[in-house]
Structures are given as structure tokens and as C-alpha cells.
Amino acid sequence: MIPVRCFSCGKVIASSWDEYKRRTKDGEDPAQVMDDLGITRYCCRRILLSHVELVDTLAPYQ
Ligand SMILES: [Zn+2]
């Protein structure tokens, strides 16, 4: 479950998660997608990036 807000700065990131997930799955560059979504701070980007890795790791077992 993606955190609703960034732990560090409080920016709402959950609303961007679905689009981020869909576009990266389609092969887009995660950094470019985050730029488009307005997630520019490193603290917020780190949450999305680490969350994707977790989902990828767990996917075969779901
Ligand atoms: Zn942040």
C-alpha cells in the first residue's frame, strides 16, 4: 500500500501512484513519469521508486 503522503515533506503522492505504476509498466522512464506528475523532490521520488521494487519482488507470489 502506497503511503498517502510523503513521510518527509507531506506532499500527497497516493493520487499519482496509479498513473506512475501504469506508465512505468508500459516501459516509460520512472524519472520522466515522476517529472510529469510533479513529483520533483527526492524524498517523494524515493518512496515511489522503493515501492515499485517491492511490488516487483512480490508480484510472482500474488
Ligand atoms: Zn517528499
From TrEMBL:
Pfam families for this protein: RNA_pol_N
Q: Which GO terms describe its cellular component?
A: cytoplasm; DNA-directed RNA polymerase complex
Task: Name the enzyme's class.
Answer: transferase
**What Gene Ontology terms for biological process does this UniProt record contain?**
DNA-templated transcription
What is the required cofactor set for this protein?
Zn(2+)
Gene3D superfamilies (alphabetical): Homeodomain-like
From the UniProt record, list the reaction(s) this protein catalyses. Answer: RNA(n) + a ribonucleoside 5'-triphosphate = RNA(n+1) + diphosphate
Tell me where it resides: Cytoplasm
User: What this chain does, per the record?
Assistant: DNA-dependent RNA polymerase (RNAP) catalyzes the transcription of DNA into RNA using the four ribonucleoside triphosphates as substrates.
Q: How does it assemble?
A: Part of the RNA polymerase complex.
Its family remark reads:
Belongs to the archaeal Rpo10/eukaryotic RPB10 RNA polymerase subunit family.
Could you tell me what this protein is called? DNA-directed RNA polymerase subunit Rpo10
- The species this protein belongs to is Methanomethylovorans hollandica (strain DSM 15978 / NBRC 107637 / DMS1)
